[in-house]
Amino acid sequence: MDSMVDKITQLGPAWLLVLLLVGLVLAVLLTVRGRRGRHKHGHESKVIPQTALQQDAHGDAETTFLAQLKKAKEEFGPEDPEVVTPMRNLATLYRKQGKFTAAEPLLHRSLAIMEKSDPKNIEISAILEQLGGLYEAQGR
């Protein structure tokens, strides 16, 4: 029986190059995927709470957002921009529930953190838009 190496060498140089490239692409994809899971509150950490929010599972979403906010504060500190996303998610949920007085300070805090960390960050405009939507919902 031929060994795996013998079978691969019989394929010829062009196929060897193709196999090498496929292996390289797979290695890069696995590395990127692994890093994304460990990244500061990367996209994957937002999928479940956004789904809960869209499905009106308010209790689940609130629990998830509060846990994310607590984790971000513990990992990065209460003034770090990483706390802004869970804060804004929580504010969105509270607005959807009509809890405007709970949502407003979260948005103001998010705005202050982003303005302090990076006054030119595009997220500032998104927070202002969210705050404007909250005021509009209140008739202010």
Topology:
Elements: H1 4-10, H2 13-38, H3 44-54, H4 58-76, H5 84-96, H6 100-117, H7 123-138
What is the structural class? mainly alpha
Termini Cα gap: 80 Å
Q: Considering DSSP H and I runs of 4 or more, what fraction of the residues is helical? A: over 70%
Poorly predicted regions: 34-48
Q: Which shape, going by the Cα principal axes?
A: elongated
Relative strand content: under 5%
H/E element order: HHHHHHH
Annotation, overall tally of beta strands: 0
Q: Report on the biggest sheet.
A: none
Write down the overall mean pLDDT. 78
Number of helices: 7
Overall radius of gyration: 23 Å
Explained architecture:
This protein has helices spanning 4-10, 13-38, 44-54, 58-76, 84-96, 100-117, 123-138. The chain is 79% helix and 0% strand. With 140 residues, the chain is mostly helical. It has seven helices and no strands.
Notable features of this structure?
single chain, 140 residues, mainly alpha, 0% strand
Can you summarize this structure?
This protein is mainly α. It is built from seven helices and no strands. The chain has helices at 4-10, 13-38, 44-54, 58-76, 84-96, 100-117, 123-138.
